[in-house]
């Protein structure tokens, strides 16, 4: 935020918050409620890159949100201050005492910390909620503990959402997220093959290679372009009928002809139509695309009914 609120007293929660899913949203609502009651700034301390990327050098993990998307979602759910700490091995080696004193108290001026019963922190994640309660007495802040019962009531997790997306189950993923899964990227020039078969596409380039791209296939999507909601269908895959090429994301927008090359757009994924297939020839592909479009438009019509 542009307003400098660094030294104001805050209510703070801490976590990776990948996906900002319905479980996270429950924590954020409690954070906001406490903030309103105590007239504090609702704040989140989050980390990037993901600790597994740093500590285990795990390049395989894909995240549900880019760090920019995570910021936008947290703001959307009412968080006024988002502190993103760069996660490094040096940061991971901070003692529990220094982590609490230097960051939670001195830097963020937290007066209430809202945290799960199973939260671990400090070097080797050796400190737990009992240690945090001890530090709270030393440094004069309160702990609002999220109980095992509260956490168990929400059976969703970022891992479950990743699994659903990797299986192409966009409906399940969206139900866990509480919003439509999004892909944010720049529209770049492709091979213009779509125009030759009457299905021009916007090619979406996503710079962040850690962003999870759902299973290859054809999906119904929507985007807001120049404040207007535009629906379309999106193909994720290598377009095997035309020629095998690197995996791409291409969107055919309905009733839309504006040149949007170079534009940054956000695609919301609504519904999966089918797997990607290799067809016998271009004509067979065109016929299938026409069928896909009818199904997609019927889905949109029901959505808007």
Would you kindly provide a written description of the structure presented here, covering whatever features stand out?
Catalyzes the phosphorylation of riboflavin to FMN followed by the adenylation of FMN to FAD. Keywords: ATP-binding, FAD, Flavoprotein, FMN, Kinase, Multifunctional enzyme, Nucleotide-binding, Nucleotidyltransferase, Transferase. Residues 176-301 form the Riboflavin kinase domain. It holds the Pfam family FAD_syn. This protein has helices spanning 22-38, 51-55, 67-76, 89-92, 96-107, 129-139, 148-153, 158-166, 170-177, 193-196, 282-304, and strands at residues 10-14, 41-48, 81-86, 110-116, 142-146, 181-188, 202-205, 217-225, 228-237, 248-253, 264-274. By secondary structure, it is α/β, with parallel strands linked by helices. The longest helix has 23 residues, at 282-304.
CATH superfamily of the largest domain: HUPs
**How large is the share of residues in beta strands?**
25-35%
**Which CATH architecture of the largest domain is right?**
3-Layer(aba) Sandwich
Helix percent reads: 25-40%
Quaternary state of the chains? single chain
Largest sheet: 6 strands, antiparallel, barrel
Number of helices: 11
Instruction: Give the strand tally.
Output: 11
Rg for CA atoms: 22 Å
CATH topology description of the largest domain: Rossmann fold
* Class of secondary structure makeup: alpha/beta
**CA distance, first residue to last residue:** 38 Å
With strands numbered from the N-terminus, the spatial order across the biggest sheet is 6-7-10-9-8-11
- General form: elongated
The helix/strand series, from N terminus to C terminus, equals EHEHHEHHEHEHHHEHEEEEEH
Low-confidence stretches: none
């Amino acid at each position: 935020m542009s307003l400098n609120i660094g030294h104001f007293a805050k209510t703070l929660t801490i976590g990776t918050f990948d996906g900002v899913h319905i479980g996270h949203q429950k924590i954020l609502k409690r954070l906001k409620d406490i903030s309103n009651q105590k007239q504090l700034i609702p704040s989140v301390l989050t980390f990037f890159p993901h600790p597994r990327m740093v500590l285990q050098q795990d390049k395989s993990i894909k995240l549900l949100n880019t760090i920019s998307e995570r910021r936008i979602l947290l703001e959307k759910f009412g968080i006024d201050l988002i502190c993103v700490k760069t996660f490094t091995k040096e940061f991971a080696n901070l003692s529990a005492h220094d982590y609490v004193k230097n960051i939670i108290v001195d830097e963020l001026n937290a007066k209430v910390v809202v945290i799960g019963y199973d939260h671990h922190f400090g070097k080797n994640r050796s400190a737990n909620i009992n240690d945090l309660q001890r530090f709270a007495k030393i440094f004069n802040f309160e702990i609002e503990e999220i109980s095992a019962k509260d956490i168990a009531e929400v059976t969703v997790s970022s891992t479950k959402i990743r699994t659903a997306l990797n299986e192409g189950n966009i409906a399940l993923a969206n139900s866990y997220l509480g919003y439509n899964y999004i892909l944010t990227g720049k529209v770049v020039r492709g091979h213009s093959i779509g125009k030759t078969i009457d299905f021009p596409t916007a090619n979406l380039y996503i710079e962040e290679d850690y962003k999870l791209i759902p299973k290859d296939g054809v999906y119904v999507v929507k985007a807001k372009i120049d404040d207007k909601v535009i629906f379309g269908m999106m193909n994720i895959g290598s377009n095997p009928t035309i020629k095998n090429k690197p995996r791409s994301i291409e969107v055919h927008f309905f009733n839309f002809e504006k040149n949007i090359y170079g534009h940054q757009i956000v695609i919301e994924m609504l519904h999966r139509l089918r797997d990607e297939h290799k067809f016998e020839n271009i004509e067979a592909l065109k016929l299938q695309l026409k069928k896909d479009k009818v199904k997609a438009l019927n889905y949109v019509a029901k959505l808007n009914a």
